[in-house]
Amino acid sequence: MSNPERAEEKTLILVADDDETARLLMRSSLEQAGFDVIEAEDGAKALASFEAAMPEIVLLDVEMPNMNGFSACAGLRKLPKGEDVPVLMVTGHDDVDSVNQAYEAGATDFLSKPINWALLGHRVRYILRASRTFRNLKASEVRLAKAQQMARLGHWEWQVAEDRWYFSEEVCRIIGFAPGDCAVTRQSVTNLIHPDDQGRVLHAFEAALRGEQAYDVEFRITLPDGTARIIHEQAEVTLNEKGSPGRIEGTLQDLTEQRHAEERIKYLAYFDCLTGLPNRQSFAEQVSHALRGAKRSKRPLALLFMDIDNFKSINDSLGHPVGDQLLRKFAERITQTVRGSDFLARPVEDQHELHVYRFGGDEFTLLLTGLQHEHDAAIVARRILGSSEKAIQVGSHELYATASIGISVFPSDGDDARSLLRNADAAMYHAKEKGKNTFEFYTESLTQISLERINLEARLRKAIERSELKLHYQPRVDAKTGLVRGGEALLRWVTSGMGAVPPSKFIPLAEETGLIIPIGEWALREACQQIQAWQAAGLLPTTISVNLSPRQFRHQRLAFLIGKILDETGLSPDLLELELTESAIMEDVSTATKILQELKGLGIRMAVDDFGTGYSSLAHLKSFPLDVLKIDRSFVRNVSEDPEDAAIVLAIIAMAHSLGLSVVAEGVENEEQYAFLKTNSCDEIQGYLFSEPVSATEYARFIETSESLPWRITDA
Ligand code: C2E
Ligand code: MG
Ligand code: MG
Predict the structure, then answer these.
(1) 12, 429, 589, 663: which has the highest count of C-beta atoms within 10 A?
(2) Pairing between strand 87-91 and 57-61?
């Protein structure tokens, strides 16, 4: 028979008694009181019923066959879930002995016969309530202990008058004792405290004992196994009726992991992981701090801004892991140089300090305080430059990493961190312009230079719409026949106010500011339209190469854009060639391969410009879909006099041919150079010997008359 109410509402009671009448009476009395009852007629059956039905309370008669009540109770306690169930022992004898025996067997309470039936229900309900309260308490204790364990938080208590201590299990764990055999005393905690912290902790504890105050201390301990931990202790005093401390309670929390994490976060915020040097953030804070000191002491302060020369091309050609290693070793070297020698060794009160920071990328800053003279900074700069003349070994590479340094000093060049930094940076650029591997002090005229740059940029932004940009074309001549094979398009900018600005000045500016994207697009479209126009006018087809800057090359819409321009102009793609520098290709080899393949897919020819100035080898270039290699002007210049340059040029030609690339020599200015290149199988020549870059009209005339030009070699 099932009663839906029962499952939800009624408490199930197991009654075990061998006397059927007694069971019947119990049942009716308990059912009347609102309980559900199951019965068992001996101890063994009682255990089986308990396991099957899981009653919430058990009433056990003492005298039963098979297994008496005491054994049944003891057995019950060993069953799963039997540990906490309330057991009420029903005993016939009211003697102390059986009551004792009942408790020993684990009974919760006892009930002596004859039973007061009217009270039975109340008695049971009362025991149930007490047992539920007890269970809840136990559960919350377990939860609390778990929470404390997770927080590594232990609790202790000291009854002062009785000198009785209590330590929670977690305290034992925290101080490296096993929770079970925890023989902790206050002394055992004190013994572990770091000698430098002991006095502080003792002082706080004694003050608490005098009833003065609660305390809150952090200290280090060394565990019995030697590991160091960081502990936070808090304690509070409870006064007795007499107003003196009756009880002191405290918590111990192990904050080691938390403190380590905090230190790590702080480290990451203030130090650079690669070099271990303090970073830009530290620098910013230190400069402000040092400036306050300098203003107070009225002593100059110098800020050195240092940038590794040509780092980008090393990074691009040898890869970032090599670049990283180089930065690390470079940083090590400056730190050693700075630390290892007393730059400004002067008698008596010299108090200068020198710190190095990694500012970002290949930039480092140095802060020099407590100077006697502003120009002392030059000694430091010179020493650092001197130390960077030795090669740095990175794996199998022997690298030379020189640097350019800009110096600004307080108070002459500014009295706040921003202007000092800006001026040191400007001075650094000046050092680069002067040929690198040198240092420069900031001067007022540098401000002038940066103003000019800003001015130039503003003009460049308007150059396209004002039609100030033009393309000039420089012919490329077949070395053997002397016939014009094609030409290179070169940008020219003539401004209304400032006259002609050379590409070496405005192209890098355009690249830096991103203006190269619209300018480059203009040049591509202009060149394609021009080639088409020449063809329409009946001129022999001529291939024109257009320079692509690294930034344009990596611009995601490049292939799309060129495809569009080819469509618009209807130009045959094999009449267009694109020139790229080595570093643009080498920066990210896999992306470069993808872009080059897309461009090749359009049918365009690809050339490597200024070859030999980067760090890539021909072997590197093997995997790229290229057609042409242009030997840089710097090798061609002395090719007929300098055997070393001649050897390089010969090697480049031979290797390029073995890769199926055609070779162009740039910057050919005289007959000797031409003769050398022609004899040694260079394919094409470009240079002032034949023509400077000229306007489109002149270029057209040049092609028309090409057949009859003086160097035309008819017998080839
Ligand atoms: P580049 O691509 O290596 O161009 C060759 C440079 O050498 C040109 O300088 C040219 O006038 C010069 N040159 C040619 N023959 C001789 C010679 O016999 N002797 C000497 N001393 N120089 C010669 P230019 O026109 O001043 O251009 C400089 C650089 O500006 C170019 O070097 C190229 O990297 C860049 N550039 C020019 N036009 C563009 C362009 O449309 N887009 C991009 N991204 N860069 C361009
Ligand atoms: Mg070029
Ligand atoms: Mg070139």
Answers:
(1) 663
(2) parallel
Q: Is the CB of 612 within 6 Å of ligand 1?
A: no
- Ligand 1 atom closest to Cα of 548? 44
Query: In the prediction, which pLDDT does 3 show?
Result: 43
The H or E element that residue 204 is part of is helix 195-209
Say whether both 474 and 600 belong to one domain.
Answer: yes
Whether 206 is in a domain gets the answer yes
Q: Is residue 238 part of a domain?
A: yes
Q: Which two tokens stand for residue 250?
A: 């405290």
Q: Are residues 208 and 294 in the same domain?
A: no
Query: How many Å lie between the centroid of ligand 2 and the Cα of residue 639?
Result: 20
Cα–Cα distance between 357 and 364 in angstroms, integer? 6
609 lines ligand 1 (CB under 6 A): yes
CA distances from 343 to 305, 330, 544 (A): 18, 19, 57
Q: Which atom of ligand 1 is nearest to the CA of 579?
A: 2
- Which of 426, 461, 496 corresponds to the end of one domain? 461
Domain that holds residue 51: 4-147
Residues with CB under 5 A from ligand 2 (ion): 547, 579, 609
Residue 431's identity, in one-letter code, is: A
Q: Is pTM, for the whole model, over 0.70?
A: no
Domain check: are 584 and 676 in the same one?
yes
**Cα 609 to ligand 2 centroid, rounded to whole Å:** 5
In sequence order, the β-bridge partners of residue 221 are: 193, 229
Residues 527 and 597 in one domain: yes
CA 270 to chain centre: 13
Q: Alpha carbon of 542 to those of 170, 265, 574, 665, 714: distances in Å?
A: 87, 62, 10, 18, 20
- Assign residue 510 the CATH number of its domain: 3.20.20.450
Whether residues 450 and 484 share a domain: the answer is: no
Q: Does residue 534 lie in a domain region? A: yes
Give 548 Cα–ligand 1 centroid separation in angstroms. Answer: 12
Closest-CA residue, ligand 1 atom 42, reads 547
Assigned token pair, 99: 């009551």
Q: Is 502 in the pocket of ligand 1 (CB under 6 A)?
A: yes
Indicate which ligand has the atom closest to the C-alpha of 584. 1
Ligand 1: which residue has its CA nearest to atom 25?
490
C-alpha angle 620/623/628, rounded to 5°? 85
Residues 227, 197 contacting (CB under 8 angstroms)? no
Distance 547 CA to ligand 2 centre (A): 5
For residue 88, list its beta bridge partners.
59, 109
CB within 8 Å of 566: residues ≥ 6 apart:
528, 573, 576, 602
The closest ligand to the CA of 686 turns out to be 1
Q: Give the pLDDT confidence score for residue 704 in this predicted structure.
A: 85
The DSSP output letter for 515 is: T
Distance 361 CA to ligand 1 centre (A): 29
Look at residue 715 and tell me if it is in a domain: no
Q: How many domains does the chain fold into?
A: 4
Give residue 633 CA to ligand 1 midpoint distance, Å.
10
pLDDT at 681: 96
Q: Is the confidence at residue 146, as pLDDT, over 60?
A: yes
The residue to mutate among 545, 547, 637, having the most atoms of ligand 1 within 8 angstroms of its beta carbon, is 547
Question: 503 CB under 6 A from ligand 1?
Answer: yes
What is the C-alpha separation between 72 and 69, in angstroms, rounded?
Answer: 5
Give CA–CA dist 576/547, Å, rounded.
11
pLDDT at 6: 42
Model confidence over 106-140: pLDDT tens digits? 999 988 888 888 899 999 999 999 999 988 998 88
Residue among 464, 476, 490 whose CB has most ligand 1 atoms within 8 A, to mutate = 490
Q: Are residues 414 and 291 in the same domain?
A: yes
Which ligand has the minimum distance to the alpha carbon of residue 503? 1
Are residues 571 and 695 both part of a single domain?
A: yes
Closest ligand 1 atom to 610 CA: 3
Same domain, 434 and 476: no
688 CB less than 6 Å from ligand 1? yes
